[in-house]
């Protein structure tokens, strides 16, 4: 780990000012991802801005009938919230399928959205990795790539986004609220939040340097049956090989998003139009253009089968 | 004490303390944090500084140049050790590759430097400033690709490379029922919780190392040899070990580099391998490719048994001895086994819990299940039909004890085997396809010399000293039980001191030889102490009774403390073995039963029930023995379902080198586990009449899981681990 300086501002304005003073600074929330990466010098910020003193730790009803989730609400608290369990059950289930109890106690809503890939080559600083060190190549292409993406990958990077929570947020059409270093706020629909790797896999989302997430807002509940299926090699404490978040209405319409298959939660609105036609039709649209790697061709049938099982359960 | 005739009745047979389920005496130290592990000896070494190991970034080649200037100038840095400045180093007897590499690099993450600094953080930060330029050379990293270049390995612990009895080829060709299949097992990591760690301190030319090591005497020898100093000048202290599983049998880079670092900076130095180095810097269980052939009569008698195994290792390395159990497990007049060893430039392969048998049975016991099905026989019946009471390769050698059939029958009864529908893919529980499987367990019992010293003081306290280690197995407790039984004192009157090379040399912990040999050594020393007590009091040692803290004979009864007197009494002895283990075959047996559910949509396997029945001689402490077996069953479940070091075949390293990437079972993966020990004593094994169980418990488990998965789904997977991707194509449509 490289030496760094640290501060804990009390207000968002102070935090904004701090980012202006320290280009390249990083926010730290639960620290469950950032600290690991700093120890390995995959991330080496010279300055840390601890956001734990900023508030943003409440879950509140919005005037639109939705839910405003503070950026610092812990994964455990979010999963246990009565309104979330009742109206956004897919989110609660996705959270509880992730990490471990101890980690969820520390992990925050914003930190979870921004956690970085689990590609093992990203984690080994002896290996080439365009995401960690742009221009060095991709160790995973032609290497061990069982966990990697089958959709939306590029010749520069085939990493996946590992979050379970983000898949549920995607299917719920969450909005990310931020404040920038200059004090300006904005709302980013989650559909526009994550980026595909393209030629710049190091740029993972549309946040600007120093931009702070303050809230994640959920729209009015949409009802329906909520399912989150996470498929993995052991029963707990493992990242998804494939996951399916689904909300299905009585009339057979609904929404579906996939995790574990791409650089972002994978949702194709056109695929959802096929829901009344059944799982196979949905999967075909979702998986259009799939480019499996040497070790992960199984993800294609696994998505089809998991989706079918999830939809069966949602239909009761 | 020479043990060369079968044990007769001795004080251990009283079973006042031995054989009772006893809480581990070191438990309270561990749960309160007062049991200090290798990295935690702050009190003995208050002024240690920190060393951080740099591992090679390539798998094979040379260091072209190494630039230390920036690192040396970094804050807090006290010194940097490399092969260039470390002075002349030898290589330990038990190490295949050098523990400090350079300029030649033999494998990925081979240690090439130690950065020593005032604080841990400074050492780690400075290590990133060391600039190394490498020249890569081509390496061999793919076992399947180099398999056919394999040669006959030198005979080692696992016996000769080849054995043959009768005419295998002829009998196989002539057999009405034939079976021929190939299985693969992957590289596996010990993945113990405590990483390899050491603190080294020099006083003049004398070196003391607090470390985490299973075999104290081996590692004293190898550390002395590597440093080129007399053995007498090296002291190793390893009282507590946070798991080893064979990964800490040997001297490793942490201990050597701590010693070199401490010499360089003239301060005690502490070194722990960071997690990725545990995987690629130390040893692992090597992958195997195994071919098994059976010929049998129509009614299920094996007439031909063939087992070949291919594995790889660094040059001068050793094979995974995966055919060992096949030489002994089933009858059959015509048989052959063969091991071939190819050169691989991956990290060093070596022993991991039940080396040889664990991967060997992963293959053999699936093959037995497949053959039983081919014959239309129940797999338990098939095994019993081919049981043997003599070494099938040398029929003049009987087994000292062999209750495999009893294990299978007892287990079948307890598990409800009778109700099983032999046809696969017939049982559903909602989305889960349910199946059950069985496998035999087999692991040899090895006789190893082991010494101990016992002291008796004037309070009647008995203190045992031996360099035996407790790797979480319960050595402290069974040694205390042995001394308490022998000296006739309660457990609380016994103090056990382990893991210090100043104590008499024990068998150490490995190969499930720890329990019966180390307690055998304590038995020998206690026998001598009893004689010394009797002699001092002028009592007849043969008839003296040691009970309730007193020694009594001829109508006299004297408290032990009084007998010891103010000066106390000390006795030291070792158990040494004759040829009982040549005349008869000493082995342990068991049967594993497993029920699994396979998710019909996703192919995820979840274990629902596990039962092990073990026949392993006298069980010294049923509580710690059970812990050993359930731990081993858990490791077997990991081997079956998830454990695999993923090889990057271009760069030549294990990619998943942390505990997020190398998955081992979590609590949610392990269901209720039941363990039954058959009531058995083995007078041929040692005066304790005991054998080991810690490795028996893993042997066969993975195959039982594999067989259960087959029974659940009808899909036969011969390549471990059985991850869902290997099942997906065999599952019914989701509906
Ligand atoms: C062993 C292990 C297993 C895990 N398993 C799973 C799993 O199965 N599923 C899963 O989904 N996750 C899993 N995780 C990941 C876990 O969910 C994340 O580590 C966690 O959610 C990160 O949250 P945090 O608050 O600790 O983030 P931090 O580590 O504090 O921060 C992460 C990133 O977010 C940035 N950040 C934090 N807050 C803000 C903010 N308000 N505004 C802008 N930027 C911010 C930081 O600068 C940093 O870049 C696992 C983690 C571990 C260590
Ligand atoms: S897949 Fe992406 S993260 Fe992984 S090595 Fe390639 S560039 Fe790096």
**Secondary structure category of chain A:** alpha+beta
Report the end-to-end length of chain A measured between terminal Cα atoms: 51 Å
CATH superfamily of the domain at 353-446 and 583-727 in chain B: Aldehyde oxidase/xanthine dehydrogenase, molybdopterin binding domain
Distinct ligands, ions and cofactors found in the model: flavin-adenine dinucleotide, iron/sulfur cluster
Helicity level of chain A, as a percent range?
A: 25-40%
What's the CATH class of the domain at 353-446 and 583-727 in chain B, please?
Alpha Beta
The count of DSSP E runs of length 2 or more, i.e. the number of strands of chain B, is 30
Beta-strand residue percentage of chain B: 25-35%
Tell me about this structure.
The complex is a heterodimer of chains A (316) and B (735). Chain A is an alpha+beta fold and 316 residues long. Chain A has helices at 12-21, 34-39, 75-80, 82-87, 89-96, 101-106, 109-113, 120-123, 165-171, 269-272, 279-286, 299-314; strands spanning 5-7, 26-28, 47-50, 59-61, 67-70, 175-179, 185-189, 212-218, 225-231, 242-248, 254-259. In chain A, the strands form 3 sheets. A 5-stranded antiparallel β-sheet of chain A has the order 4-5-8-6-7. Chain A has a 3-stranded parallel β-sheet with strand order 1-3-2, with helices on one face. In chain A, helix 5 packs antiparallel against helix 9 and helix 11 (279-286) crosses helix 12 (299-314). The longest helix of chain A is centred in the last third of the chain and has 16 residues, at 299-314. Chain A is globular and about 55 Å long. The radius of gyration of chain B is 27 Å and the shape is globular. Chain B has a 7-stranded mixed β-sheet with strand order 4-6-2-13-10-11-12. A 5-stranded mixed β-sheet of chain B has the order 1-25-19-20-21. A 5-stranded mixed β-sheet of chain B has the order 8-16-15-14-9, sandwiched between helices. Chain B contains 17 helices and 30 strands. The mean pLDDT of chain B is 97. Chain B has 735 residues and is of the alpha+beta class. Among the domains of chain B are: 11-35 and 448-576, 2-Layer Sandwich (Aldehyde Oxidoreductase, domain 4), CATH 3.30.365.10; 353-446 and 583-727, 2-Layer Sandwich (Aldehyde Oxidoreductase, domain 4), CATH 3.30.365. The A-B interface holds A 1-3, 39, 41, 118, 120-121, 123-124, 126-127, 139, 142-144, 146, 229, 231-239, 241, 279, 298, 301-302, 305-306, 308-309, 312 and B 57-58, 75, 121, 124-125, 128, 276, 431, 601-604, 606, 641-642, 646-648, 650-651, 655-658, 660-661, 663, 665-669, 723-725, 728-729, 731, 734-735. Iron/sulfur cluster (SF4) binds next to helix 8 of chain A. Flavin-adenine dinucleotide binds next to strand 2, helix 6, helix 7 and strand 8 of chain A.
């Amino acid at each position: 780990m490289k030496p760094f300086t640290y501060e804990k501002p009390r207000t968002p304005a102070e935090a904004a000012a701090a980012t202006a003073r320290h280009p390249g600074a990083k926010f730290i929330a639960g620290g469950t991802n950032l600290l690991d990466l700093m120890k390995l010098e995959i991330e080496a910020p010279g300055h840390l801005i601890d956001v734990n003193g900023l508030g943003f730790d409440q879950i509140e009803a919005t005037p639109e009938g939705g839910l405003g989730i503070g950026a610092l609400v812990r994964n455990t608290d979010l999963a246990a919230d009565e309104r979330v369990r009742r109206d956004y059950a897919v989110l609660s289930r996705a959270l509880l399928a992730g990490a471990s109890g101890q980690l969820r106690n520390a992990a925050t809503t914003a930190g979870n959205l921004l956690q970085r890939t689990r590609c093992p080559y990203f984690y080994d600083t002896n290996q080439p990795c365009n995401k960690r060190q742009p221009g060095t190549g991709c160790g995973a292409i032609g290497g061990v790539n069982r966990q990697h993406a089958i959709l939306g990958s590029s010749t520069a990077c085939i990493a996946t986004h590992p979050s379970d929570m983000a898949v549920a947020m995607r299917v719920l059409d969450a909005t990310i609220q931020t404040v920038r270093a200059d004090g300006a706020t904005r709302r980013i629909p989650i559909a526009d939040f994550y980026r595909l790797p393209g030629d710049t896999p190091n740029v993972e989302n549309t946040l600007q340097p120093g931009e702070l997430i303050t809230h994640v807002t959920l729209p009015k509940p949409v009802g329906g049956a909520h399912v989150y299926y996470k498929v993995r090699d052991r029963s707990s404490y493992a990242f998804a090989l494939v996951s399916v978040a689904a909300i299905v209405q009585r009339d057979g319409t609904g929404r579906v998003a996939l995790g574990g298959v791409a650089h972002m939660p994978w949702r194709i609105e056109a695929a959802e139009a096929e829901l009344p036609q059944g799982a196979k039709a949905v999967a075909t649209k979702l998986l259009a253009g799939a480019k499996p790697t040497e070790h992960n061709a199984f993800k294609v049938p696994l998505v089809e089968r998991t989706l079918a099982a999830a939809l069966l359960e949602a239909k009761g | 004490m020479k043990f060369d005739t079968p044990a007769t009745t001795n004080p251990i047979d009283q079973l006042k303390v031995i054989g009772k389920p006893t809480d581990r005496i070191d438990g309270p130290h561990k749960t309160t944090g007062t049991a200090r592990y290798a990295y935690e000896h702050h009190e003995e070494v208050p002024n240690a500084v920190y060393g951080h190991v740099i591992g090679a970034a390539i798998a094979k080649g040379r260091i072209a140049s190494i630039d230390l200037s920036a690192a040396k100038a970094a804050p807090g840095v006290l010194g940097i050790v490399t092969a260039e400045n470390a002075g002349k180093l030898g290589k330990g007897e038990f190490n295949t590759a050098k523990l400090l590499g350079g300029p030649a690099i033999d494998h990925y993450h081979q240690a090439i430097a130690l950065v020593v600094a005032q604080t841990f953080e400074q050492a780690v930060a400075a290590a990133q400033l060391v600039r190394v330029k490498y020249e890569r050379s081509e390496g061999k990293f793919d076992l399947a690709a180099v398999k056919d270049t394999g040669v006959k390995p030198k005979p080692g612990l696992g016996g000769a490379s080849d054995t043959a009895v009768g005419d295998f080829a002829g009998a196989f060709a002539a057999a009405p029922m034939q079976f021929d299949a190939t299985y693969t097992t992957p590289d596996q990591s010990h993945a113990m919780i405590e990483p390899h760690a050491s603190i080294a301190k020099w006083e003049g030319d004398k070196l003391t190392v607090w470390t985490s090591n299973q075999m104290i005497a081996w590692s004293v020898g190898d550390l002395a040899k590597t440093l080129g100093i007399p053995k007498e000048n090296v002291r190793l202290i390893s009282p507590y070990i946070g798991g080893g599983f064979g990964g800490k049998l040997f001297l490793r880079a942490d201990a050597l580099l701590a010693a070199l670092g401490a010499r360089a900076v003239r301060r005690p130095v502490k070194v722990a391998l960071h997690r990725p180095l545990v995987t690629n810097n130390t040893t692992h269980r090597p992958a195997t490719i195994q071919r098994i052939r059976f010929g049998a009569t129509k009614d299920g008698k094996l007439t031909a048994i063939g087992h070949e195994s291919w594995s790889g290792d660094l040059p001068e390395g050793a094979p995974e001895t995966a055919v060992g159990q096949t030489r002994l497990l089933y009858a059959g007049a015509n048989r052959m086994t063969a091991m071939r060893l190819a050169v691989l430039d991956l990290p060093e392969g070596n022993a991991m819990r039940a080396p040889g048998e664990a991967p060997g049975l992963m293959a053999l016991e699936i093959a037995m299940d497949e053959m039983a099905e081919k014959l239309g026989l129940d797999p338990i019946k098939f095994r019993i039909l081919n049981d043997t009471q003599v070494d099938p390769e040398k029929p003049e050698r009987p087994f000292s004890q062999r209750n495999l059939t009893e294990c299978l029958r007892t287990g079948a009864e307890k598990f409800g085997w009778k109700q099983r529908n032999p046809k696969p893919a017939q049982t559903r529980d909602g989305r889960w396809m349910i199946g059950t499987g069985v496998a035999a367990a087999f692991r040899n019992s090895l006789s190893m010399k082991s010494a101990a010293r016992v002291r008796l003081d004037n309070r009647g306290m008995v203190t045992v000293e031996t360099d035996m280690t407790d790797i979480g197995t319960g050595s402290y407790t069974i040694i205390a039980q042995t001394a308490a039984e022998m000296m006739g004192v309660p457990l609380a009157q016994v103090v056990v001191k382990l893991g210090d090379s100043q104590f008499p040399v024990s068998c150490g912990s490995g190969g499930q030889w720890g329990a019966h040999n180390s307690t055998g050594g304590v038995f020998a020393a206690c026998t001598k102490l009893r004689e010394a007590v009797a002699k001092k009091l002028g009592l007849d040692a043969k008839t003296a009774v040691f009970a309730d803290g007193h020694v009594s004979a001829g109508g006299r009864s004297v408290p032990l403390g009084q007998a010891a007197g103010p000066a106390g009494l000390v006795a030291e002895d070792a158990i040494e073995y004759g040829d009982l283990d040549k005349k008869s075959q000493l082995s342990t047996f068991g049967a594993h039963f497993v029920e699994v559910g396979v998710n019909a949509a996703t192919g995820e396997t979840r274990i629902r029930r596990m039962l092990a029945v073990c026949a392993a001689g006298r069980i010294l402490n049923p509580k710690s023995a059970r812990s050993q077996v359930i731990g081993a069953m858990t490791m077997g479940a990991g081997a079956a379902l998830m454990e695999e070091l993923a090889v990057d075949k271009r760069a030549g390293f294990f990619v998943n080198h942390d505990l997020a990437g190398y998955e081992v079972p979590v609590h949610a993966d392990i269901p209720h586990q039941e363990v039954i020990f058959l009531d058995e004593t083995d007078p041929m094994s040692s005066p304790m009449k005991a054998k080991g169980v810690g490795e028996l418990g893993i042997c066969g488990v993975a195959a039982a899981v594999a067989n259960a998965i087959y029974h659940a789904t009808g899909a036969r997977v011969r390549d471990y681990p059985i991850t869902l991707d290997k099942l997906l194509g065999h599952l019914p449509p989701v509906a």
